[in-house]
Amino acid sequence: MTRATLATVVVVVLAFLGGERRAAAGEFGLSLEGGYFGLTNASKSAKAVFDGASGGATGGGSIRYVFLRSLFVGAGAHYFERKGERVFVADASGTPFRLGHPLTLREVPVYGMVGWRFYPGSRLVPYIGVGAGKTSILEKSVVGDIEESQKQSKATYLAVGGVEWGRGILRVGAELMLSSIPDSIGVAGVSKIYGEKNLGGMSIVGKIVVVP
Fold first, then answer.
1. Which of 8, 71, 138, 156 is most buried, taking the most CB atoms under 10 A from its CB?
2. What is the distance between the alpha carbons of residues 205 and 163, in angstroms, rounded to a whole number?
3. CATH number for the domain including 63?
4. What pTM was estimated for this model as a whole?
5. Are 157 and 180 in contact (CB under 8 A)?
6. Dihedral angle computed from the Cα positions of residues 23, 24, 30 and 31, in that order, rounded to the nearest 10 degrees
7. Is 9 within a domain?
8. Span of 15-19, 158-162, 183-187, 203-207 with lowest mean pLDDT
9. Do strands 28-38 and 170-180 pair parallel, antiparallel, or not at all (unpaired)?
10. Structural domain that includes position 137
C-alpha cells in the first residue's frame, strides 16, 4: 500500500467515525434518503394503471433535532413519480383493459414529526416517530393531443420506524414509513370501481445522515 493510499484510507475512516462523538441533547442531523414507495392503500388501482406494479422509486431528505438525548423533532419531504396508462375495468373482479392513454402520477409529501430514539449512546440507535403534513398530488394524462391534469393537496398522516448506525459526522440508516392520505382518490375511474380512497402506502428507504 502506497503512502497516498494509506492517507486516503485514514481520512475516510476519520471522517466516518468523526471522533466517536456520543449522542447529546441539541444534536442536529441532515439526511439524504432513497428507496421504494408502494401504494399499498390503493394497490389494485396502482397495479391496473402501472401494468402490474404497485409502486416505484422514491427519494428525498429530512432534518432532525434531538432534545434530551432521545426525544427528537424533524421535518422532511419525498418525491414519487410513476408513469402508466389509463384503463377501463367493468367491475372489481374484471380484467383491466388498457386504453392507450399515457398517465403520470406524482406525489410530493412534506411532513413534520416527533419521535423517540432508543439507546442514544450506542453505535446502533433504533427510533420511532409519528407525524403529519400535506401531500401534493398531480395526476396527468394525454388523450389524443389533449393533456389533462388534476392537482390537489391532501392532509397526510404517518408513522415511522428506523435504525441509525454510527456516532460520527457521517452515519447510515434505514427507515420504514407508513403513510395515509384519506379521500385522495375514489370519486371516479378505476379507484372508484375498486373502492380505494387512499393514495398513501409504505416506503422503505436507506439513509445517509450528516451530523455537523
1. 156
2. 11
3. 2.40.160.20
4. 0.85
5. yes
6. 30
7. no
8. 15-19
9. unpaired
10. 23-210
